[in-house]
Amino acid sequence: MSMGKIYLPILMYHGIRKHYNDQLPSGWSWRHAVDAASFAAQLDVIATVDRPVVRLTDLDQSEIRSGCPVITFDDGHVSDYLIAAPALKQRALPATFFITWAFLGRPGYVTRQQVRELRAQAFDIGSHGLTHKKLTEVGPVELWREALDSKRRLEDLLGDEIISFAIPSGAYNDQVLQALWAAGYGRIMTSDFGYARRDHSVMHRLGVMAETTPRQFRAFVSGGPWWAARQHLLEGVKERLNRVLLGGTTTPPSPASIG
Q1: Does the domain formed by 7-257 have CATH 3.30.70.920?
Q2: Measured by CB atoms within 10 angstroms of the end CB, which terminus of the chain is less buried, N or C?
């Protein structure tokens, strides 16, 4: 690792379900829904790491070292409020919840009041877009609305500045990044699998999935950037071999493709 470069494992969660066999609300993804027992065990692993969990809003502080975990949640599932937040508070762990504005109040998703309460509990709130559309597939005007309107509406709801954005479905290009920067976001979360560089505004994350094993999770938080890069490469090779040999995609997508 080069001197001066600080690498962070930013964990990306989606929904948390109470039990492994629970029926999921409409719009949830089975692969992205970690059961509550596994989630609690993962938080306990994080609590034993010899690095404090840090907030996205604190990344510019000089005392932050390589390996400090960051915890994030995408979409605004109701489990953010009902399951994740209480488990995090019990362990005094910070997190950022990225909210899709159009999902607020839908069955299975948080309400406006619950977002206010999450912020009142000292959790950070970021934008996950206005409607969760793939930003690479919309025109310039709609892209600007997804970036800026979602920011302004959350700011009006909370009375706080929104400075971070998680890209829906992991779909971005230079035009998307330029729009997000112009809208005023200082930290942009991707679904690209890997450790994040603290000095970069566009940041990789490590997607925690339903099938993530305890051993894999420990590697997420302690394996380091070179382990993550190697893992990403191996997953890509497996997917390409599958397409060539089987003529399709019968294996699940790699962690890099989630969001």
Answers
A1: no
A2: N
